[in-house]
């Protein structure tokens, strides 16, 4: 019984030193080897890849907790092939029972192929140390063995005592977990991730691509990745909700981002919240355990009024006294009290209709939940109630409907600013990724009370990343959707440009005359305050259109195509997208390279010509007010078609850049500044 309770009996420290005369797997006569360690069929370690080397040197260390020495360590070597299946280079077994305790042994493993045991595939050199883990469980085991010799009654009593103790501990944990779930939060822990110093290099170039993971209970965050540095600076903020008044621990780990393989562990540290005072910002310089370097954090604990399940079992906004207190809490007079507490949202789930069948019986067992820092809700009289604090105005309430036992989820987004208090409204469900429609609707009644000043201030703060995201995957549907979104934005700009160009071309004389007079009037009387004034007028114009029932906000949104397309049609669509992206990247890259080549004297004649043009422009801007220059340019553009009806419209700057070669075109041109 005691041996099954132990998390680990031995600590196995392994240093993967190097390989000798490994097998050739690439056409160039080399290989790109990496090593995997497995115990009981589970992969526990993967080394970095050493490219183009048959005698690689890793010098990587790994520490493992081993429960039983009967399971050997299975070592496998592979050749890394980008985009293809990696080639097998040999394997070997390390029998842990044969290792001497508390002593570092140099071990050489001869690699073999089970299908061709006579082939020589080289060897690996390891340094192995096996350390028994001493503790209370081993002493208890010895005590039981001695007691067995004395009396079987003592053994029975001890086993009963251990079982009772474990049961009480389990019930205590379950009870504390119930209390924790019954209490939503008691405070907020704000962590500002500032920087890290002197981290351990994990890549072959002597640098790392570090990112940080935070965890406190079920709450998780992940920072952005800072590439190629040992002293990264993040300047990010993450907020945890505190359930225990005594504080708790926040586990922090640092990882090195690797593409195509498992990320490397760089170190860990821990923050003990019980020793930090509330309503005060603490600067913490935390040294990393199992790694190198220091992590710099700013930690702030903010107290908050506790909200419990008992409060959620009643619609608190229907109680006049409670509603009055909530309105006072978020009144304008308390705008600068607890800035992060913006408001309160209460959701009542009425019913759902037309849900997708998720079970084999053609039915579903729907449950309801919120994707939030909390998943607590109350059920009363056939309805679900949910209450939550708003801490980021402009965000969305996310509803998900689950099918019990099948893990199929559908959901919907409800933007907070669009909620009408007390209105019962049907929301169409979307897919798991909330990107496309699916079957079913959900009926909600939502009430929102918030402070306008706090909401405005919170909109200027970056939205924090709530969950650790999965690794991105290539999706043909998502690629087509994003391409169409970008194309619609570009087409909008093109249409605006065509409209302005039609004024220059005098396609409509009345419109061109009005545009010319407006241009002269604005340029002659232009002041800086007119820029926000124009944006204000645009907002007012759209508001008037919406008020008059001429809402064009969703006019450009393309509905999802429900028609099933054949494989060839999908293939052609993907091909068109790839060609368009390829051409767009070529245009952008060529433009940037032409500008660069203008200044690095790739074509000396064009560089001298640009010098003359820049000198003329400098003198013109210095002696002539910018207002007159813009006015002269506009008059020239408007009258060009009148002066020469058959002239071809062009852009002089783009015409000049088209004469400068890009980096692809410059191959073969001799570089001679005096030519």
Explain this structure to me?
- The protein is of the alpha+beta class and 675 residues long.
- The protein is 32% helix and 30% strand.
- It is built from 13 helices and 24 strands.
- The strands form six sheets. Strands 19-20-17-24-23 form a five-stranded antiparallel β-sheet. Strands 4-1-8-7 form a four-stranded antiparallel β-sheet, with no helix packed on it.
- Helix 8 runs antiparallel to helix 12 (626-643).
- The model is unreliable at 1-8, 135-151, 171-183, 305-313, 367-386, 398-409, 465-471 and 555-564 (pLDDT under 50).
Q: N-to-C terminal Cα separation, in Å?
A: 89 Å
Q: Name the quaternary structure.
A: single chain
Helical region count? Answer: 13
Helix content: 25-40%
SSE layout and pairings?
Layout lengths: L1 H4 L4 E11 L12 E7 L2 E5 L10 E10 L6 E7 L7 E8 L9 E7 L12 E10 L3 H15 L1 H31 E15 L12 E7 L2 E4 L10 E10 L6 E8 L7 E9 L8 E7 L6 E15 H4 L7 H10 L13 E11 L12 E5 L7 E3 L2 E8 L5 E8 L4 E8 L7 E8 L6 E14 L1 H7 L17 H30 L3 H16 L5 H18 L19 H33 L4 H20 L2 H18 L8 H8 L16
Antiparallel strand pairs: 1-4, 1-8, 2-3, 2-5, 5-6, 7-8, 9-12, 9-16, 10-11, 10-13, 13-14, 15-16, 17-20, 17-24, 18-21, 19-20, 21-22, 23-24
How would you summarize this macromolecular structure in one to three sentences?
The chain is an alpha+beta fold.
List keywords for this structure.
Multiple C2 domains, transmembrane 1a; calcium; transmembrane helix; extended; metal-binding; single chain; five-stranded antiparallel β-sheet; alpha+beta; 13 helices
């Amino acid at each position: 019984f005691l041996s099954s309770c132990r998390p680990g009996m031995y600590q196995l420290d392994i240093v993967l030193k190097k390989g000798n005369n490994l097998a050739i797997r690439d056409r160039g006569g080399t290989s790109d080897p990496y090593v995997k360690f497995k115990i009981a069929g589970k992969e526990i370690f993967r080394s970095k890849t050493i490219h183009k080397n048959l005698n690689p040197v890793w010098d990587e260390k790994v520490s493992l907790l081993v429960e039983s020495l009967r399971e050997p360590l299975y070592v496998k070597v592979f050749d890394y092939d980008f985009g293809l299946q990696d080639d097998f280079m040999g394997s070997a077994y390390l029998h842990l029972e044969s290792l001497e305790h508390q002593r570092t042994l140099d071990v050489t493993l001869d690699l073999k192929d089970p299908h061709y045991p006579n082939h020589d595939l080289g060897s690996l050199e390891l340094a192995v140390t096996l350390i028994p883990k001493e503790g209370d469980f081993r002493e208890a085991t010895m005590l039981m063995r001695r007691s067995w010799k004395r009396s079987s009654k003592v053994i029975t009593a001890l086993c009963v005592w251990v079982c009772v103790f474990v049961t009480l501990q389990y019930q205590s944990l379950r009870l504390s977990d119930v209390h924790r779930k019954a209490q939503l939060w008691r405070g907020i822990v704000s962590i500002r991730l500032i920087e890290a110093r002197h981290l351990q290099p994990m890549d072959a170039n002597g640098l790392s691509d570090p990112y940080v993971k935070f965890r406190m209970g079920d709450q998780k965050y992940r920072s952005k990745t800072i590439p190629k540095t040992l002293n990264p600076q993040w300047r990010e903020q993450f907020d945890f909700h505190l359930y225990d008044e005594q504080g708790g621990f926040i586990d922090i780990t640092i990882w090195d981002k690797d593409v195509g393989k498992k990320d490397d562990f760089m170190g860990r540290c821990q923050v003990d919240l019980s020793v930090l005072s509330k309503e005060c910002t603490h600067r913490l310089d935390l040294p990393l355990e199992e790694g190198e370097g220091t992590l710099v954090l700013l930690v702030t604990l903010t107290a908050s009024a506790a909200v419990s399940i008992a409060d959620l079992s009643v619609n608190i906004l229907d109680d006049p006294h409670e509603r009055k207190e909530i309105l006072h809490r978020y009144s304008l007079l308390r705008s600068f009290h607890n800035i992060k507490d913006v408001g309160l949202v209460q959701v009542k789930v009425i019913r759902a209709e037309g849900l997708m069948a998720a079970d084999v019986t053609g039915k579903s067992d729907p449950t309801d939940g919120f994707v939030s820092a909390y998943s607590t809700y109350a059920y009363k009289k056939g309805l679900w109630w949910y209450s939550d604090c708003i801490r980021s105005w402009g965000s969305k309430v996310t509803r998900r409907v689950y099918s019990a036992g099948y893990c199929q989820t559908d959901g919907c987004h409800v933007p907070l600013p669009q909620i009408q208090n007390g209105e019962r409204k049907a929301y169409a469900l979307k897919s798991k990724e909330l990107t496309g429609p699916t079957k079913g609707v959900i009926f909600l009644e939502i009430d929102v009370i918030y402070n306008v000043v706090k909401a405005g201030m919170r909109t200027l703060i970056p939205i924090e990343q709530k969950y650790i995201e999965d690794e991105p995957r290539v999706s043909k549907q998502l690629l087509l959707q994003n391409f169409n979104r970008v194309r619609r934005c570009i087409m909008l700009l093109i249409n605006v440009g065509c409209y302005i160009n039609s004024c220059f071309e005098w396609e409509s004389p009345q419109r061109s005359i009005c545009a010319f007079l407006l241009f002269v009037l604005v340029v002659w009387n232009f002041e800086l305050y007119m820029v926000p004034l124009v944006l204000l007028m645009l907002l007012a114009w759209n508001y008037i259109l919406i008020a008059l029932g001429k809402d064009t906000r969703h006019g450009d949104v393309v509905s999802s195509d429900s028609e099933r397309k054949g494989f060839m049609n999908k293939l052609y669509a993907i091909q068109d997208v790839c060609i368009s992206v390829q051409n767009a990247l070529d245009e952008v890259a060529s433009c940037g390279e032409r500008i660069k080549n203008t200044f690095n004297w790739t074509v000396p004649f064009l560089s001298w010509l640009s010098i003359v043009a820049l000198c003329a422009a400098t003198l013109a801007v210095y002696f002539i007010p910018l207002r007159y220059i813009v006015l002269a340019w506009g008059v020239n553009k408007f009258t060009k078609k009148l002066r020469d009806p058959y002239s071809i419209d062009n852009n002089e700057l783009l015409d000049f850049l088209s004469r400068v070669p890009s980096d692809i075109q410059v191959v073969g041109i001799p570089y001679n500044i005096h030519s």
